[in-house]
Write a structure and sequence with these properties.
315 residues, alpha/beta, five-stranded mixed sheet, 29% helix
C-alpha cells in the first residue's frame, strides 16, 4: 500500500472549489481512509471488512470441509473420496450510496487555536462519526422501519434484520418463567453447531442495558462471581465468552456470533469534497464538507449464529 497519510487524504478535497479535482480518492487512498474508520480501537474494527470495485457482486466463501484426517497405511494412497476439495460458496452484496455532510463557519476557524490545522482534526472527527454510524447501521439498519431516525435506519438492512431468517433462534422468555437466567447462555451454545464455535472468537453482542442486567443478576447470586461483580465490577463473561456492546442495539436481544462472520462491504468509490464558494458559502461565511461512500452489511454464514430474543431487562 502506498504511504498516504491522513493529511494527504484530506488535502485531496482542498482544491475542489477551483475545479482542479473532483475529490475522488484513488483505490489506495480509499483503503487508507477506510482504515481510519475501521481501526482496531472499536468493535467495528473486529468485523470483517471487504472493499470491492463494483457496487454489486458476491463475497466468496472458501473452506475445506471437516474431519479429513485419515490413518496412514504404508504403501496405500488416500482413497479418492478422502482427498481434500475446496468447499465453495458466495454471499451476494449490493451497496447503497451514503453521504455525511458538515459545515464550519470561517469565523470559527479564524478563532480556533489550530487555525488551518483544525481541518485535519475536523476530518478526523468526521471519520470517527462514520465509524460510529457504520457500526450502528450495520446492526440496526432496517429498510421497513418507520420510527424515529428513519432517514438513517432505512438506508440498508443490517445484521439483525438479516438474522430473522436462517439463523438459530432462542426464546429467552420461555425459560425460567420469563425471568432473567443464565440458562439462555447455555441454551444458545447448545443450539450452535459445534463445528463453528471458538470460545476466543465468539462474542455475546448486545446493548449496555442488557450487560448491566447480567451484572445485576450476578450480584443477586451468592457466589464468588456475584461477590466479584459487587466489589469491583469485574468484566464477567457467561461461559467465558466475551461481551460486545453496540450503540442503539435493541433491548431484549443478544446475538452469539464470531464478529468476522459479520461483514461490512464498501467500494473504492469514495469522495471527500469541500467548497468555500457558492452563494450559501459566501453569504453565510461557511465551509461545506461532504464524504460520499457506499455500504452494505452481509452475513457470511447464518448457520454459525444464534439470536436470543425476549431477554428480560430486569432480574
Amino acid at each position: 500500500m502506498g504511504n498516504y497519510s491522513n493529511q494527504a487524504i484530506i488535502n485531496k478535497g482542498r482544491t475542489l472549489a477551483t475545479g482542479q479535482t473532483n475529490g475522488m480518492l484513488n483505490p489506495e487512498q480509499s483503503e487508507r481512509f477506510m482504515q481510519m474508520v475501521f481501526d482496531d480501537s472499536s468493535f467495528l474494527g473486529e468485523l470483517r471488512h471487504e472493499m470491492r470495485g463494483s457496487t454489486k457482486g458476491t463475497i466468496e466463501k472458501l473452506g475445506v470441509g471437516r474431519r479429513l484426517l485419515r490413518k496412514k497405511v504404508e504403501g496405500d494412497a488416500p482413497a479418492d473420496g478422502d482427498l481434500v476439495e475446496p468447499v465453495l460458496g458466495a454471499v451476494p452484496y449490493s451497496t447503497t450510496d451514503i453521504v455525511l455532510g458538515a459545515e464550519i463557519s470561517e469565523k470559527f476557524i479564524r478563532e480556533n487555536i489550530e487555525k488551518e490545522g483544525f481541518e485535519e482534526v475536523f476530518m478526523g472527527m468526521i471519520a470517527q462519526q462514520i465509524k460510529v454510524d457504520l457500526l450502528d447501521l450495520g446492526f440496526n439498519g432496517d429498510t421497513s422501519y418507520t420510527g424515529p431516525d428513519a432517514a438513517f435506519v432505512t438506508i440498508t438492512d443490517g445484521f439483525i434484520k438479516g438474522l430473522e431468517t436462517d439463523s438459530h433462534i432462542l426464546d429467552a422468555g420461555a425459560l425460567q418463567g420469563g425471568n432473567f437466567t443464565d440458562d439462555m447462555f447455555t441454551g444458545a451454545l447448545k443450539l450452535l453447531p459445534t463445528k463453528y464455535f471458538n470460545r476466543t472468537n465468539y462474542k455475546w453482542i448486545a446493548n449496555t442495558r442488557t450487560y448491566i442486567t447480567w451484572l445485576e443478576y450476578l450480584k443477586q447470586k451468592e457466589t464468588t462471581a456475584g461477590d466479584m461483580a459487587i466489589l469491583n465490577g469485574q468484566n464477567l463473561n457467561p461461559l467465558s465468552v466475551g461481551w460486545k456492546e453496540v450503540p442503539n442495539f435493541p433491548d431484549g436481544k443478544i446475538i452469539l456470533a464470531d464478529p468476522k462472520n459479520l461483514t461490512i462491504v464498501n467500494t473504492y468509490d469514495i469522495k471527500i469534497r469541500k467548497t468555500t464558494e457558492g452563494r450559501s458559502a459566501v453569504m453565510k461565511d461557511m465551509r461545506y464538507y461532504a464524504v460520499h461512500l457506499d455500504v452494505d452489511a452481509i452475513i457470511m454464514e447464518k448457520d454459525a449464529i444464534v439470536v436470543i430474543n425476549n431477554v428480560p431487562l430486569t432480574v
